[in-house]
Amino acid sequence: MNDASQPASANAALHVARFLAAPAATMPRFAADGRLWFLCDAPGSAQVFELKPGLAGPPVQRSVHRDAVTVLAGRGAFDFAVFARDAGGNERHQLHLLPAIGEPRALTDDPGTIHGWGAISPDGTQIAFVANNRDPAHTDPWVLELASGTPRRVAMVQGPHELPCWHPSGQAIVIEAAPRSFESTLLLVNVHSGAITPLTPHTGDWRHTGPRWRTDGRAFWLRTDRDREFLGVAMMEPGGAPRWLYVPEHDVEIMEPSPDEMRLALVVNENGFSRLRVIDAMTGAILAEPTYPEGTITALSWSPDGASIAFDLANPTTPAAIWLAPAAGGAARELYRAAPPPDGARPYQLLHAPSVDGLNIPLFLAEPAGPQPASGWPVLIWVHGGPVGQSLPTWRPDLQALLAAGIAVAIPNVRGSSGYGRAYAALDDREKRLDAVADLAAVRNFLGTRAGLDGARVAVMGQSYGGWMVLAAMTEYPELWAAGVEFYGIARWKTFFERTGPWRIGHRAAEYGDPVADAALLERLSPLNHVDRIAAPLLVAQGMTDPRVPPFESEQIVAALKARGIPVRYVTFPDEGHGFTKRDNRQAAYTEVVAFLSRHLGTGRT
After folding, report:
1. CB atoms within 10 A of CB 130
2. How does DSSP classify residue 151?
3. What is the pTM of this model?
4. Going from the N-terminus, what domains does the chain have, and what CATH number goes with each?
5. What's the rounded Cα separation, in Å, for the pair 443 and 412?
6. Are strands 220-224 and 232-236 parallel, antiparallel or unpaired?
7. What integer best gives the mean pLDDT of the chain?
8. Which backbone phi and psi does 591 adopt, to 5 degrees?
Protein backbone atom coordinates (compact mmCIF):
# COMPACT_ATOMS: atom_id res chain seq x y z
CA MET A 1 0.00 0.00 0.00
CA ASN A 2 1.00 3.64 -0.25
CA ASP A 3 0.08 6.95 1.37
CA ALA A 4 0.52 6.00 5.01
CA SER A 5 0.14 9.55 6.26
CA GLN A 6 -3.06 8.72 8.16
CA PRO A 7 -2.62 5.49 10.18
CA ALA A 8 -5.73 3.35 10.45
CA SER A 9 -7.46 3.08 13.80
CA ALA A 10 -6.45 0.10 15.93
CA ASN A 11 -10.08 -0.42 16.90
CA ALA A 12 -11.08 -0.42 13.25
CA ALA A 13 -8.56 -3.20 12.63
CA LEU A 14 -10.03 -5.21 15.50
CA HIS A 15 -13.57 -4.85 14.14
CA VAL A 16 -12.42 -6.08 10.74
CA ALA A 17 -10.31 -8.93 12.11
CA ARG A 18 -13.23 -10.27 14.13
CA PHE A 19 -15.41 -10.75 11.07
CA LEU A 20 -12.67 -11.75 8.64
CA ALA A 21 -11.62 -14.51 11.03
CA ALA A 22 -14.69 -16.54 10.04
CA PRO A 23 -13.82 -18.50 6.85
CA ALA A 24 -16.31 -19.25 4.08
CA ALA A 25 -16.85 -22.62 2.37
CA THR A 26 -18.33 -22.55 -1.14
CA MET A 27 -18.69 -24.29 -4.52
CA PRO A 28 -19.33 -27.96 -3.55
CA ARG A 29 -18.58 -30.62 -6.19
CA PHE A 30 -19.31 -34.35 -5.72
CA ALA A 31 -16.98 -37.02 -7.16
CA ALA A 32 -17.99 -40.50 -8.35
CA ASP A 33 -17.08 -42.21 -5.07
CA GLY A 34 -19.11 -39.74 -2.98
CA ARG A 35 -16.24 -37.54 -1.83
CA LEU A 36 -16.97 -33.82 -1.89
CA TRP A 37 -14.63 -31.09 -3.02
CA PHE A 38 -15.24 -27.44 -2.15
CA LEU A 39 -13.45 -24.13 -1.73
CA CYS A 40 -12.58 -22.67 1.67
CA ASP A 41 -10.63 -19.49 2.43
CA ALA A 42 -9.42 -20.60 5.88
CA PRO A 43 -5.77 -20.59 4.67
CA GLY A 44 -6.02 -16.89 3.73
CA SER A 45 -7.39 -17.29 0.20
CA ALA A 46 -9.86 -19.73 -1.33
CA GLN A 47 -8.30 -23.18 -1.76
CA VAL A 48 -9.64 -26.65 -2.62
CA PHE A 49 -10.61 -28.88 0.29
CA GLU A 50 -12.00 -32.41 0.30
CA LEU A 51 -14.41 -34.37 2.47
CA LYS A 52 -13.72 -38.09 2.08
CA PRO A 53 -16.45 -40.54 0.94
CA GLY A 54 -19.03 -40.76 3.69
CA LEU A 55 -18.54 -37.01 4.28
CA ALA A 56 -17.31 -37.55 7.84
CA GLY A 57 -14.15 -36.39 9.52
CA PRO A 58 -12.14 -33.21 9.02
CA PRO A 59 -11.60 -31.98 5.46
CA VAL A 60 -8.23 -32.28 3.76
CA GLN A 61 -6.67 -29.29 1.98
CA ARG A 62 -5.87 -30.22 -1.64
CA SER A 63 -4.42 -26.99 -3.10
CA VAL A 64 -1.86 -24.66 -1.58
CA HIS A 65 -1.38 -21.25 -3.18
CA ARG A 66 -1.32 -17.64 -2.07
CA ASP A 67 -3.57 -16.70 -4.98
CA ALA A 68 -7.19 -17.75 -4.72
CA VAL A 69 -8.74 -20.64 -6.60
CA THR A 70 -11.55 -19.02 -8.58
CA VAL A 71 -13.20 -22.01 -10.30
CA LEU A 72 -13.74 -25.58 -9.11
CA ALA A 73 -15.38 -28.02 -11.53
CA GLY A 74 -16.23 -31.69 -11.25
CA ARG A 75 -18.87 -34.22 -12.20
CA GLY A 76 -20.37 -36.95 -10.04
CA ALA A 77 -19.48 -39.51 -12.72
CA PHE A 78 -15.70 -39.02 -12.36
CA ASP A 79 -13.01 -39.19 -9.70
CA PHE A 80 -11.17 -35.97 -10.59
CA ALA A 81 -11.83 -32.25 -10.61
CA VAL A 82 -10.42 -29.22 -12.40
CA PHE A 83 -9.66 -25.88 -10.80
CA ALA A 84 -8.46 -22.50 -12.05
CA ARG A 85 -6.36 -19.75 -10.52
CA ASP A 86 -4.57 -16.66 -11.77
CA ALA A 87 -1.46 -14.76 -10.67
CA GLY A 88 -2.04 -11.83 -8.35
CA GLY A 89 -5.52 -11.10 -9.66
CA ASN A 90 -4.47 -10.60 -13.31
CA GLU A 91 -7.29 -12.91 -14.54
CA ARG A 92 -4.93 -14.92 -16.77
CA HIS A 93 -6.33 -18.12 -15.32
CA GLN A 94 -4.50 -21.42 -15.68
CA LEU A 95 -6.25 -24.78 -15.37
CA HIS A 96 -5.14 -27.56 -13.01
CA LEU A 97 -6.18 -31.23 -12.71
CA LEU A 98 -7.01 -32.47 -9.20
CA PRO A 99 -6.87 -36.29 -9.05
CA ALA A 100 -8.54 -38.32 -6.33
CA ILE A 101 -5.07 -39.22 -5.01
CA GLY A 102 -1.92 -37.22 -5.50
CA GLU A 103 -0.93 -33.65 -6.14
CA PRO A 104 -2.62 -31.31 -8.62
CA ARG A 105 -0.92 -30.84 -11.97
CA ALA A 106 -1.07 -27.94 -14.39
CA LEU A 107 -3.08 -28.47 -17.56
CA THR A 108 -2.21 -25.10 -19.08
CA ASP A 109 0.93 -23.03 -18.71
CA ASP A 110 0.64 -19.82 -20.70
CA PRO A 111 0.80 -16.88 -18.25
CA GLY A 112 -0.27 -14.34 -20.85
CA THR A 113 -3.49 -16.15 -21.80
CA ILE A 114 -6.92 -16.22 -20.18
CA HIS A 115 -8.22 -19.78 -19.96
CA GLY A 116 -11.96 -19.81 -19.28
CA TRP A 117 -13.25 -23.03 -17.80
CA GLY A 118 -15.65 -25.08 -19.88
CA ALA A 119 -16.65 -28.71 -19.26
CA ILE A 120 -15.52 -32.32 -18.86
CA SER A 121 -16.26 -34.62 -21.80
CA PRO A 122 -18.97 -37.28 -21.38
CA ASP A 123 -16.39 -40.07 -21.13
CA GLY A 124 -14.07 -38.11 -18.85
CA THR A 125 -11.05 -38.33 -21.15
CA GLN A 126 -11.01 -34.69 -22.28
CA ILE A 127 -11.82 -31.22 -21.12
CA ALA A 128 -12.95 -28.22 -23.16
CA PHE A 129 -12.24 -24.58 -22.41
CA VAL A 130 -11.89 -21.20 -24.12
CA ALA A 131 -8.66 -19.24 -24.47
CA ASN A 132 -7.65 -15.90 -25.98
CA ASN A 133 -4.06 -16.69 -27.00
CA ARG A 134 -4.79 -16.04 -30.72
CA ASP A 135 -6.06 -12.52 -30.03
CA PRO A 136 -6.81 -10.94 -26.63
CA ALA A 137 -10.27 -9.86 -27.85
CA HIS A 138 -11.39 -13.33 -28.99
CA THR A 139 -11.83 -16.52 -26.96
CA ASP A 140 -11.59 -19.65 -29.10
CA PRO A 141 -12.81 -23.08 -27.97
CA TRP A 142 -10.14 -25.69 -27.21
CA VAL A 143 -10.14 -29.39 -26.33
CA LEU A 144 -7.42 -31.05 -24.24
CA GLU A 145 -6.80 -34.79 -23.83
CA LEU A 146 -6.10 -35.47 -20.18
CA ALA A 147 -3.87 -38.50 -20.81
CA SER A 148 -1.49 -36.74 -23.17
CA GLY A 149 -2.00 -33.18 -22.00
CA THR A 150 -2.24 -32.09 -25.62
CA PRO A 151 -4.53 -29.11 -26.34
CA ARG A 152 -6.16 -28.49 -29.70
CA ARG A 153 -8.03 -25.42 -30.95
CA VAL A 154 -11.45 -26.50 -32.23
CA ALA A 155 -12.50 -23.33 -34.04
CA MET A 156 -11.72 -19.65 -34.36
CA VAL A 157 -14.57 -17.37 -33.29
CA GLN A 158 -15.02 -13.64 -33.02
CA GLY A 159 -15.49 -12.04 -29.61
CA PRO A 160 -15.63 -13.47 -26.10
CA HIS A 161 -17.45 -16.75 -25.47
CA GLU A 162 -18.19 -19.12 -22.63
CA LEU A 163 -18.25 -22.93 -22.92
CA PRO A 164 -20.99 -24.45 -20.77
CA CYS A 165 -21.11 -28.12 -21.85
CA TRP A 166 -20.33 -30.96 -24.24
CA HIS A 167 -22.81 -32.70 -26.49
CA PRO A 168 -23.46 -36.21 -25.05
CA SER A 169 -21.96 -37.83 -28.16
CA GLY A 170 -18.57 -36.34 -27.29
CA GLN A 171 -18.32 -35.11 -30.88
CA ALA A 172 -19.29 -31.48 -30.20
CA ILE A 173 -19.22 -28.75 -27.59
CA VAL A 174 -21.52 -25.82 -26.90
CA ILE A 175 -20.29 -22.25 -26.77
CA GLU A 176 -22.33 -19.28 -25.56
CA ALA A 177 -21.99 -15.86 -27.15
CA ALA A 178 -23.27 -12.88 -25.16
CA PRO A 179 -22.71 -9.60 -27.02
CA ARG A 180 -24.91 -7.77 -24.50
CA SER A 181 -25.85 -8.33 -20.88
CA PHE A 182 -29.39 -9.40 -21.69
CA GLU A 183 -28.80 -11.27 -24.95
CA SER A 184 -27.04 -14.59 -25.51
CA THR A 185 -27.16 -17.44 -27.96
CA LEU A 186 -25.91 -21.03 -27.95
CA LEU A 187 -23.83 -22.55 -30.75
CA LEU A 188 -22.88 -26.20 -31.34
CA VAL A 189 -19.25 -26.67 -32.46
CA ASN A 190 -18.04 -29.94 -33.97
CA VAL A 191 -14.74 -30.78 -32.26
CA HIS A 192 -13.31 -32.42 -35.41
CA SER A 193 -14.41 -30.16 -38.26
CA GLY A 194 -15.00 -26.91 -36.36
CA ALA A 195 -18.40 -26.58 -38.05
CA ILE A 196 -20.73 -24.29 -36.08
CA THR A 197 -24.51 -24.80 -35.89
CA PRO A 198 -26.87 -22.39 -34.10
CA LEU A 199 -28.80 -24.13 -31.33
CA THR A 200 -31.03 -21.22 -30.32
CA PRO A 201 -31.81 -19.12 -33.43
CA HIS A 202 -33.98 -16.18 -32.42
CA THR A 203 -34.79 -12.56 -33.03
CA GLY A 204 -34.66 -10.01 -30.23
CA ASP A 205 -32.36 -9.63 -27.25
CA TRP A 206 -33.15 -12.79 -25.29
CA ARG A 207 -30.90 -14.83 -23.05
CA HIS A 208 -30.22 -18.55 -23.63
CA THR A 209 -27.84 -19.87 -21.01
CA GLY A 210 -26.77 -22.83 -18.85
CA PRO A 211 -27.64 -25.67 -21.26
CA ARG A 212 -27.61 -29.30 -20.08
CA TRP A 213 -28.11 -32.07 -22.66
CA ARG A 214 -30.23 -35.16 -22.29
CA THR A 215 -28.03 -38.22 -22.80
CA ASP A 216 -29.97 -39.15 -25.95
CA GLY A 217 -28.76 -35.91 -27.54
CA ARG A 218 -32.19 -35.02 -28.89
CA ALA A 219 -32.86 -32.04 -26.63
CA PHE A 220 -31.37 -29.98 -23.84
CA TRP A 221 -32.58 -28.08 -20.82
CA LEU A 222 -31.66 -24.42 -20.49
CA ARG A 223 -32.51 -21.20 -18.73
CA THR A 224 -34.00 -18.55 -20.99
CA ASP A 225 -36.14 -15.42 -20.87
CA ARG A 226 -37.32 -15.58 -24.48
CA ASP A 227 -40.46 -13.41 -24.64
CA ARG A 228 -40.44 -13.14 -20.82
CA GLU A 229 -39.24 -10.80 -18.08
CA PHE A 230 -37.40 -13.48 -16.09
CA LEU A 231 -35.17 -16.49 -16.70
CA GLY A 232 -37.26 -19.65 -16.64
CA VAL A 233 -36.49 -23.29 -17.39
CA ALA A 234 -37.30 -24.83 -20.75
CA MET A 235 -36.45 -27.84 -22.86
CA MET A 236 -35.37 -27.28 -26.47
CA GLU A 237 -34.54 -29.36 -29.48
CA PRO A 238 -31.65 -27.92 -31.52
CA GLY A 239 -32.93 -25.01 -33.58
CA GLY A 240 -36.42 -25.27 -32.11
CA ALA A 241 -38.51 -23.20 -29.72
CA PRO A 242 -38.50 -23.47 -25.93
CA ARG A 243 -40.95 -25.86 -24.32
CA TRP A 244 -41.47 -24.19 -20.98
CA LEU A 245 -41.22 -26.30 -17.84
CA TYR A 246 -40.93 -23.78 -15.01
CA VAL A 247 -41.60 -20.05 -15.34
CA PRO A 248 -41.68 -18.25 -11.97
CA GLU A 249 -41.89 -14.47 -11.78
CA HIS A 250 -38.27 -14.52 -10.64
CA ASP A 251 -34.97 -15.51 -12.24
CA VAL A 252 -33.87 -19.14 -12.11
CA GLU A 253 -30.16 -18.72 -11.44
CA ILE A 254 -28.95 -22.34 -11.29
CA MET A 255 -30.26 -25.50 -12.96
CA GLU A 256 -28.68 -28.97 -12.73
CA PRO A 257 -30.19 -32.32 -13.84
CA SER A 258 -30.08 -35.28 -11.48
CA PRO A 259 -27.83 -38.23 -12.42
CA ASP A 260 -30.87 -40.15 -13.73
CA GLU A 261 -32.13 -37.04 -15.58
CA MET A 262 -35.58 -37.39 -14.02
CA ARG A 263 -35.32 -34.24 -11.92
CA LEU A 264 -33.85 -30.75 -12.10
CA ALA A 265 -32.44 -28.93 -9.08
CA LEU A 266 -33.08 -25.19 -9.32
CA VAL A 267 -32.07 -22.09 -7.41
CA VAL A 268 -34.59 -19.26 -7.79
CA ASN A 269 -33.78 -15.67 -6.87
CA GLU A 270 -36.75 -14.28 -4.93
CA ASN A 271 -36.00 -10.68 -3.93
CA GLY A 272 -32.36 -11.64 -3.43
CA PHE A 273 -33.05 -14.78 -1.38
CA SER A 274 -32.20 -18.18 -2.90
CA ARG A 275 -34.95 -20.82 -3.02
CA LEU A 276 -33.85 -24.39 -3.74
CA ARG A 277 -36.46 -26.46 -5.56
CA VAL A 278 -36.53 -29.85 -7.29
CA ILE A 279 -38.81 -30.20 -10.31
CA ASP A 280 -39.80 -32.98 -12.67
CA ALA A 281 -37.45 -32.78 -15.66
CA MET A 282 -40.23 -33.49 -18.18
CA THR A 283 -43.28 -31.74 -16.74
CA GLY A 284 -41.82 -29.00 -14.53
CA ALA A 285 -43.95 -30.04 -11.56
CA ILE A 286 -42.43 -29.10 -8.21
CA LEU A 287 -41.37 -32.31 -6.45
CA ALA A 288 -39.53 -30.97 -3.39
CA GLU A 289 -38.60 -27.75 -1.60
CA PRO A 290 -35.95 -28.51 1.01
CA THR A 291 -35.96 -26.25 4.05
CA TYR A 292 -32.96 -24.33 5.36
CA PRO A 293 -32.23 -20.86 6.81
CA GLU A 294 -32.79 -17.90 4.53
CA GLY A 295 -29.78 -16.82 2.56
CA THR A 296 -27.99 -17.02 -0.77
CA ILE A 297 -26.76 -20.04 -2.75
CA THR A 298 -24.04 -19.79 -5.40
CA ALA A 299 -23.47 -23.46 -6.34
CA LEU A 300 -24.98 -26.92 -5.96
CA SER A 301 -24.04 -30.51 -6.79
CA TRP A 302 -26.04 -33.74 -6.96
CA SER A 303 -24.69 -36.76 -5.09
CA PRO A 304 -23.80 -39.62 -7.45
CA ASP A 305 -26.82 -41.64 -6.30
CA GLY A 306 -29.20 -38.71 -6.78
CA ALA A 307 -30.41 -38.90 -3.18
CA SER A 308 -29.08 -35.57 -1.98
CA ILE A 309 -27.93 -32.14 -3.12
CA ALA A 310 -24.94 -30.30 -1.69
CA PHE A 311 -25.04 -26.50 -1.79
CA ASP A 312 -23.36 -23.51 -0.23
CA LEU A 313 -25.39 -21.12 1.91
CA ALA A 314 -24.56 -17.70 3.35
CA ASN A 315 -26.63 -14.95 4.93
CA PRO A 316 -25.86 -11.55 6.47
CA THR A 317 -24.95 -13.00 9.87
CA THR A 318 -23.12 -16.20 8.86
CA PRO A 319 -20.37 -16.88 6.30
CA ALA A 320 -21.01 -19.51 3.64
CA ALA A 321 -21.03 -23.13 4.73
CA ILE A 322 -21.69 -26.40 2.90
CA TRP A 323 -25.17 -27.86 3.35
CA LEU A 324 -26.74 -31.15 2.29
CA ALA A 325 -30.43 -31.42 1.38
CA PRO A 326 -32.44 -34.59 0.79
CA ALA A 327 -33.55 -34.47 -2.84
CA ALA A 328 -36.95 -35.83 -1.84
CA GLY A 329 -37.55 -32.82 0.41
CA GLY A 330 -37.35 -32.09 4.12
CA ALA A 331 -34.80 -30.30 6.24
CA ALA A 332 -31.31 -29.71 4.93
CA ARG A 333 -28.42 -30.07 7.37
CA GLU A 334 -25.21 -28.14 7.72
CA LEU A 335 -22.51 -30.47 6.46
CA TYR A 336 -19.39 -28.37 6.99
CA ARG A 337 -18.64 -24.99 8.50
CA ALA A 338 -15.01 -23.91 8.81
CA ALA A 339 -15.52 -22.03 12.10
CA PRO A 340 -18.40 -20.81 14.27
CA PRO A 341 -20.02 -17.59 13.02
CA PRO A 342 -18.70 -14.51 14.82
CA ASP A 343 -20.83 -12.99 17.54
CA GLY A 344 -22.49 -9.65 16.99
CA ALA A 345 -23.25 -9.83 13.27
CA ARG A 346 -26.35 -7.79 12.39
CA PRO A 347 -29.30 -8.95 10.24
CA TYR A 348 -30.77 -7.10 7.24
CA GLN A 349 -34.34 -5.97 6.71
CA LEU A 350 -35.87 -5.50 3.25
CA LEU A 351 -37.33 -2.04 2.54
CA HIS A 352 -38.36 0.00 -0.49
CA ALA A 353 -37.55 3.65 -1.15
CA PRO A 354 -39.51 5.82 -3.59
CA SER A 355 -37.35 7.41 -6.29
CA VAL A 356 -37.88 10.74 -8.02
CA ASP A 357 -40.26 9.26 -10.62
CA GLY A 358 -42.18 7.09 -8.15
CA LEU A 359 -40.26 3.89 -8.89
CA ASN A 360 -39.77 1.80 -5.76
CA ILE A 361 -36.12 0.93 -5.11
CA PRO A 362 -35.55 -2.26 -3.06
CA LEU A 363 -32.88 -2.02 -0.39
CA PHE A 364 -31.56 -3.91 2.58
CA LEU A 365 -30.94 -1.98 5.81
CA ALA A 366 -28.91 -3.04 8.83
CA GLU A 367 -28.48 -0.99 12.00
CA PRO A 368 -25.81 -1.32 14.69
CA ALA A 369 -26.54 -2.92 18.04
CA GLY A 370 -26.80 -0.88 21.18
CA PRO A 371 -28.29 2.51 22.05
CA GLN A 372 -28.63 4.96 19.19
CA PRO A 373 -26.79 8.29 19.29
CA ALA A 374 -29.07 11.22 20.00
CA SER A 375 -28.92 12.33 16.36
CA GLY A 376 -29.29 8.79 15.02
CA TRP A 377 -26.81 6.41 13.42
CA PRO A 378 -24.61 7.66 10.61
CA VAL A 379 -25.22 5.69 7.41
CA LEU A 380 -23.20 4.14 4.61
CA ILE A 381 -24.99 3.44 1.32
CA TRP A 382 -23.22 0.56 -0.46
CA VAL A 383 -23.92 0.24 -4.19
CA HIS A 384 -23.11 -2.84 -6.25
CA GLY A 385 -21.06 -2.98 -9.44
CA GLY A 386 -22.06 -4.43 -12.75
CA PRO A 387 -23.99 -2.41 -13.78
CA VAL A 388 -26.06 -5.55 -14.30
CA GLY A 389 -25.70 -6.95 -10.82
CA GLN A 390 -27.66 -7.33 -7.62
CA SER A 391 -26.86 -6.74 -3.98
CA LEU A 392 -27.84 -9.84 -2.02
CA PRO A 393 -28.52 -10.61 1.65
CA THR A 394 -25.21 -12.41 2.07
CA TRP A 395 -22.13 -12.37 4.28
CA ARG A 396 -20.03 -9.18 4.06
CA PRO A 397 -17.30 -8.92 6.73
CA ASP A 398 -16.50 -5.35 5.69
CA LEU A 399 -20.08 -4.19 6.19
CA GLN A 400 -20.40 -6.07 9.47
CA ALA A 401 -17.23 -4.33 10.68
CA LEU A 402 -18.81 -0.98 9.84
CA LEU A 403 -21.93 -1.94 11.80
CA ALA A 404 -19.74 -2.90 14.76
CA ALA A 405 -18.11 0.55 14.50
CA GLY A 406 -21.52 2.21 14.84
CA ILE A 407 -22.40 2.91 11.20
CA ALA A 408 -25.72 1.76 9.73
CA VAL A 409 -25.53 0.16 6.28
CA ALA A 410 -28.07 0.52 3.45
CA ILE A 411 -27.68 -1.69 0.36
CA PRO A 412 -29.96 -0.63 -2.52
CA ASN A 413 -30.65 -2.25 -5.87
CA VAL A 414 -31.14 0.84 -7.97
CA ARG A 415 -32.68 0.74 -11.45
CA GLY A 416 -30.47 -1.22 -13.80
CA SER A 417 -30.01 -4.02 -11.26
CA SER A 418 -30.64 -7.61 -12.26
CA GLY A 419 -33.05 -9.88 -10.41
CA TYR A 420 -36.13 -7.70 -10.94
CA GLY A 421 -36.88 -8.38 -14.60
CA ARG A 422 -35.62 -7.19 -17.96
CA ALA A 423 -37.58 -3.92 -17.88
CA TYR A 424 -36.09 -2.85 -14.53
CA ALA A 425 -32.59 -3.73 -15.71
CA ALA A 426 -33.00 -1.55 -18.82
CA LEU A 427 -34.00 1.60 -16.94
CA ASP A 428 -30.42 2.90 -16.74
CA ASP A 429 -29.28 2.10 -20.26
CA ARG A 430 -26.99 4.58 -22.01
CA GLU A 431 -28.57 8.07 -21.91
CA LYS A 432 -30.63 7.01 -18.86
CA ARG A 433 -27.49 6.19 -16.85
CA LEU A 434 -27.84 9.14 -14.48
CA ASP A 435 -31.35 8.03 -13.52
CA ALA A 436 -29.70 5.31 -11.43
CA VAL A 437 -27.57 7.96 -9.74
CA ALA A 438 -30.78 9.86 -8.97
CA ASP A 439 -31.99 6.67 -7.28
CA LEU A 440 -29.00 6.84 -4.94
CA ALA A 441 -29.93 10.39 -4.02
CA ALA A 442 -33.54 9.30 -3.44
CA VAL A 443 -32.41 6.44 -1.20
CA ARG A 444 -30.24 8.84 0.76
CA ASN A 445 -33.17 11.22 1.25
CA PHE A 446 -35.49 8.35 2.21
CA LEU A 447 -33.05 7.17 4.86
CA GLY A 448 -32.90 10.70 6.25
CA THR A 449 -36.61 10.48 7.09
CA ARG A 450 -36.27 7.24 9.11
CA ALA A 451 -36.19 7.42 12.89
CA GLY A 452 -32.84 6.38 14.30
CA LEU A 453 -30.76 7.46 11.29
CA ASP A 454 -28.84 10.71 10.91
CA GLY A 455 -29.56 12.18 7.47
CA ALA A 456 -26.71 14.66 7.85
CA ARG A 457 -24.08 11.92 8.14
CA VAL A 458 -24.37 9.74 5.05
CA ALA A 459 -21.53 8.30 2.95
CA VAL A 460 -21.58 6.30 -0.29
CA MET A 461 -19.36 3.35 -1.25
CA GLY A 462 -18.99 1.02 -4.24
CA GLN A 463 -16.53 -0.94 -6.34
CA SER A 464 -15.87 -1.15 -10.09
CA TYR A 465 -19.00 0.22 -11.80
CA GLY A 466 -20.20 0.85 -8.25
CA GLY A 467 -17.09 3.00 -7.87
CA TRP A 468 -18.25 5.01 -10.88
CA MET A 469 -21.64 5.34 -9.15
CA VAL A 470 -19.88 6.77 -6.09
CA LEU A 471 -18.00 9.34 -8.17
CA ALA A 472 -21.13 10.18 -10.17
CA ALA A 473 -23.17 10.62 -6.98
CA MET A 474 -20.52 12.91 -5.52
CA THR A 475 -20.41 15.06 -8.68
CA GLU A 476 -24.15 15.11 -9.44
CA TYR A 477 -25.34 15.53 -5.82
CA PRO A 478 -22.31 16.85 -3.91
CA GLU A 479 -24.37 18.38 -1.12
CA LEU A 480 -25.75 14.99 0.00
CA TRP A 481 -22.56 13.18 1.01
CA ALA A 482 -20.33 13.45 4.05
CA ALA A 483 -17.73 11.07 2.53
CA GLY A 484 -17.19 8.61 -0.30
CA VAL A 485 -15.29 5.34 -0.74
CA GLU A 486 -14.58 3.78 -4.11
CA PHE A 487 -12.61 0.68 -5.05
CA TYR A 488 -11.21 0.60 -8.63
CA GLY A 489 -13.94 2.84 -10.01
CA ILE A 490 -14.20 4.36 -13.49
CA ALA A 491 -13.25 8.05 -13.55
CA ARG A 492 -13.40 8.73 -17.28
CA TRP A 493 -15.00 6.46 -19.87
CA LYS A 494 -12.59 7.42 -22.66
CA THR A 495 -9.51 6.35 -20.73
CA PHE A 496 -11.31 3.28 -19.39
CA PHE A 497 -12.02 2.02 -22.93
CA GLU A 498 -8.45 2.80 -23.96
CA ARG A 499 -6.95 0.64 -21.20
CA THR A 500 -9.43 -2.09 -20.24
CA GLY A 501 -8.85 -5.65 -21.44
CA PRO A 502 -9.55 -5.94 -25.19
CA TRP A 503 -11.82 -8.93 -24.57
CA ARG A 504 -14.16 -6.64 -22.62
CA ILE A 505 -14.54 -3.70 -24.99
CA GLY A 506 -17.40 -4.94 -27.18
CA HIS A 507 -19.56 -6.13 -24.31
CA ARG A 508 -18.89 -3.01 -22.24
CA ALA A 509 -19.60 -0.72 -25.20
CA ALA A 510 -22.97 -2.42 -25.70
CA GLU A 511 -23.79 -1.67 -22.06
CA TYR A 512 -22.28 1.78 -21.50
CA GLY A 513 -22.16 3.30 -24.98
CA ASP A 514 -19.80 3.12 -27.94
CA PRO A 515 -16.52 4.94 -27.20
CA VAL A 516 -16.62 6.56 -30.66
CA ALA A 517 -20.28 6.93 -31.63
CA ASP A 518 -21.31 7.87 -28.08
CA ALA A 519 -18.19 9.83 -27.14
CA ALA A 520 -20.09 12.99 -26.18
CA LEU A 521 -22.48 11.06 -23.92
CA LEU A 522 -19.62 9.21 -22.25
CA GLU A 523 -17.76 12.46 -21.61
CA ARG A 524 -20.90 13.84 -19.93
CA LEU A 525 -21.04 10.71 -17.79
CA SER A 526 -17.37 10.88 -16.77
CA PRO A 527 -16.96 12.11 -13.18
CA LEU A 528 -13.41 13.28 -13.87
CA ASN A 529 -14.86 16.00 -16.09
CA HIS A 530 -16.92 17.31 -13.15
CA VAL A 531 -14.42 16.73 -10.36
CA ASP A 532 -14.63 20.37 -9.27
CA ARG A 533 -18.08 19.57 -7.84
CA ILE A 534 -16.77 17.01 -5.32
CA ALA A 535 -16.83 18.51 -1.85
CA ALA A 536 -16.51 15.52 0.50
CA PRO A 537 -13.39 13.50 1.38
CA LEU A 538 -12.78 10.34 -0.67
CA LEU A 539 -11.00 7.04 -0.04
CA VAL A 540 -9.78 5.18 -3.15
CA ALA A 541 -8.42 1.60 -3.21
CA GLN A 542 -6.92 -0.11 -6.25
CA GLY A 543 -5.47 -3.49 -7.18
CA MET A 544 -2.44 -2.85 -9.34
CA THR A 545 -2.88 -5.90 -11.61
CA ASP A 546 -6.51 -5.07 -12.40
CA PRO A 547 -7.16 -5.79 -16.13
CA ARG A 548 -10.76 -4.55 -16.04
CA VAL A 549 -10.40 -1.11 -14.48
CA PRO A 550 -6.67 -0.40 -14.66
CA PRO A 551 -4.98 1.79 -12.00
CA PHE A 552 -4.96 4.85 -14.27
CA GLU A 553 -8.64 5.41 -13.45
CA SER A 554 -7.91 5.70 -9.73
CA GLU A 555 -4.74 7.70 -10.31
CA GLN A 556 -6.62 10.31 -12.35
CA ILE A 557 -9.30 10.98 -9.76
CA VAL A 558 -6.77 11.06 -6.89
CA ALA A 559 -4.54 13.53 -8.69
CA ALA A 560 -7.48 15.76 -9.62
CA LEU A 561 -8.76 15.89 -6.04
CA LYS A 562 -5.32 16.57 -4.60
CA ALA A 563 -4.89 19.43 -7.07
CA ARG A 564 -8.12 20.96 -5.77
CA GLY A 565 -7.31 20.47 -2.08
CA ILE A 566 -10.06 17.89 -1.46
CA PRO A 567 -9.03 15.33 1.18
CA VAL A 568 -8.28 12.04 -0.59
CA ARG A 569 -6.60 8.85 0.62
CA TYR A 570 -5.24 6.36 -1.90
CA VAL A 571 -4.27 2.78 -1.01
CA THR A 572 -2.93 0.24 -3.49
CA PHE A 573 -2.31 -3.52 -3.49
CA PRO A 574 0.41 -4.82 -5.82
CA ASP A 575 -0.80 -8.45 -5.82
CA GLU A 576 -4.54 -7.89 -6.29
CA GLY A 577 -6.65 -7.24 -9.35
CA HIS A 578 -10.36 -6.56 -9.76
CA GLY A 579 -11.29 -7.52 -6.23
CA PHE A 580 -9.31 -8.24 -3.08
CA THR A 581 -9.07 -11.99 -2.44
CA LYS A 582 -6.29 -12.44 0.12
CA ARG A 583 -7.17 -12.13 3.78
CA ASP A 584 -4.24 -9.89 4.71
CA ASN A 585 -5.07 -7.50 1.89
CA ARG A 586 -8.75 -7.53 2.77
CA GLN A 587 -7.83 -6.83 6.40
CA ALA A 588 -5.81 -3.81 5.30
CA ALA A 589 -8.43 -2.50 2.83
CA TYR A 590 -11.41 -2.95 5.13
CA THR A 591 -9.55 -1.40 8.07
CA GLU A 592 -8.90 1.65 5.92
CA VAL A 593 -12.61 1.87 5.13
CA VAL A 594 -13.76 1.53 8.74
CA ALA A 595 -11.21 4.05 10.01
CA PHE A 596 -11.92 6.53 7.20
CA LEU A 597 -15.69 6.44 7.59
CA SER A 598 -15.51 6.51 11.37
CA ARG A 599 -13.34 9.60 11.18
CA HIS A 600 -15.48 11.46 8.65
CA LEU A 601 -18.89 10.37 9.91
CA GLY A 602 -17.97 10.83 13.55
CA THR A 603 -19.28 7.55 14.99
CA GLY A 604 -17.38 7.83 18.26
CA ARG A 605 -16.90 4.04 18.53
CA THR A 606 -13.35 3.81 17.19
Report:
1. 23
2. E
3. 0.95
4. 10-15+342-601 (3.40.50.1820), 116-218+236-241 (2.120.10.30)
5. 8
6. antiparallel
7. 95
8. -65, -40
